[in-house]
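Anyone able to model this chain together with flavin-adenine dinucleotide?
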Amino acid sequence: MNKKVLVVGGVAGGATAAARLRRLDEHAQIIVFERGDYISFANCGLPYYIGDVITEEENLTLQTPESFKRRFNIDVRTRSEVTKINRDKKTVEVKDAGGKVYEESYDYLILSPGAAPLVPPIEGINAEGVFTLRNIPDTYRIKNYVLQNNPKSAVVVGAGYIGIEMAENLHLLGLDVSIVELSDHIIQPLDFDMAADVHRHILSKGIALYLNCGVTGLYFQNGTYEVRLSDGNSIYTDMVILAVGVKPESRLAKDAGLKLGIRDCIVTDNHMRTSDPFIYAVGDAVETVDVVTGNKVFVPLASPANRQGRIAADNIAGRDSIYGGTLGTAILKVFDMTVAAAGCNEKTLMAAGIDYEKSFTFSASNASYYPGATYMTIKLLFEKKGGKILGAQITGYKGVDKRIDVIATAIKAGMNVFDLTNLELSYAPPFGSAKDPVNMAGYVASNIINGDMKIFHWHDVKNLDLDNVTILDVRTKAEFSKGTITGAINIPLDDLRERMSQLDPQKPVYVFCQIGLRGYIASRILIQNGFENVYNLSGGYRLLKSVTTPLKAFHVNGKKLQSTKEKQSEDQKTMELSEKGFAASDVPPNEE
Ligand code: FAD
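re: yes, here you go
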């Protein structure tokens, strides 16, 4: 007998599951219920429609109920909310657009209800000019508000992916945008040290950042919203976007007695089957397994939702198909910068009790002699023993997308840092280097694991005991004169062999250069000349400066609120630094 399969939710996971099932089973009866007006829409494109980057409304919807019917012979019912699952009878109750409730039976049910924006319980949160963004109606509400009220300013609460995208797009519309973030840094998959350059880039665009700040209330007075902050300051604005995260839409599953896990996500096995063998669940509403740690995680991203939808359909169609867990691979455009991450960051590795090491490399996107090369920082996290790759974060301009995907593939394949050195990646001057940034990250991490290079990190610098160690700056005299680590002596790398007698071989030597390469060469020279304890600063002085220099701008911790004019002049300076990737002085020619 032909199967009857119902799907709850008609966007990423739901639409994928339905289409895949049809391709595998031409005779199944498939009905998709979607509470909203639209199916298969481009959630990920919504901020760019608001910012007029995507200009055509019809580009937001990839399928319509009619096109789905024609191509896949699937019965799509929009404005139809599934309100109850009767597991004993294998039926669902559906409320249609007119409010009529009816029952529909199933052989299999697939839940893909997604996740809803979190709305913190603070005063004024439901005011007219306060928005969340999840779907097309939310998008129109924001867009119409901007068109009708001509706001001059906006506050974005929450600096995750959606928050940053909204900040950029509202800025593109000419609004004066402030971002408020509870944590000490934006984009939580990044560690603080990798977020530091991104903070400066955002500030350089004239966006204000309030880090370590929560919102305690929103008050509307005289046509303006006062956004009151936990540090006592207030921002006055014309509109507010709340982007503080999402929660799984698991109420339907919970009411039906299906097993829930972390953060109330629906629990499934690796076939995407829930605790009821006739009900599958996919997408933002489900708990998944972290590929690296094996821990249960909530990762609401489009790629997992689509892959899980396909796997649920495979299994219903009788094909044994397994979901192998989630890496959290993600990428974000931050104006002209690109920020990407895959696998674990330091916080998740510490929480999982994994003994890890990290390396930082600063590499050109392509041959530096070919016009237009820019620099990217790669942070690689790997097991101390054996070098298995655990995670990566990359910030830069060109070519970040390619490198994060290569490393994500390596993590998924269980590769180690030595494998990265052996990857044969495409190369011609406009696209890369014969030693690709991924190879370079592998070389540096391998040197650490092999013991060819001992390292210290930017956060170790403040603990160095100046009386008992030598801090050696091997950059040029000119670089040294512009700023160095307190207590450092300067012996440029090329003079080191001649001037080595100036160093005390009994003392540990902490070497550094601008990005780590000259420091590595210096440490090899010293080690082979009898110095036993030599450590090279990972990521070099550039990273140390980036992480430890207080942001010049106005709004960090709400401490200093500058006028717009002051702000712009600060921005200009920062922009000059960041426009081409990084300051030219960051990478002296002999480090490339
Ligand atoms: P959804 O795609 O959200 O679909 C769930 C649907 O189920 C909804 O339309 C809802 O109306 C419907 N529904 C819920 N309950 C019921 C019910 N009881 N009856 C009927 N229908 C119901 N991810 C990325 O990887 N990269 C990005 O760049 C990115 N950008 C994003 C930008 C924005 C603004 C947003 C909101 C999300 C973004 N995401 C991004 C996340 C990505 O869109 C989601 O991970 C993905 O859509 C999840 O798919 P899903 O099927 O689980 O849920």
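Residues 8-9, 11-14, 33-36, 43-44, 46-47, 81-82, 112-114, 133-135, 162, 249, 252, 283-285, 300-303, 305 surround flavin-adenine dinucleotide (CB under 6 Å).
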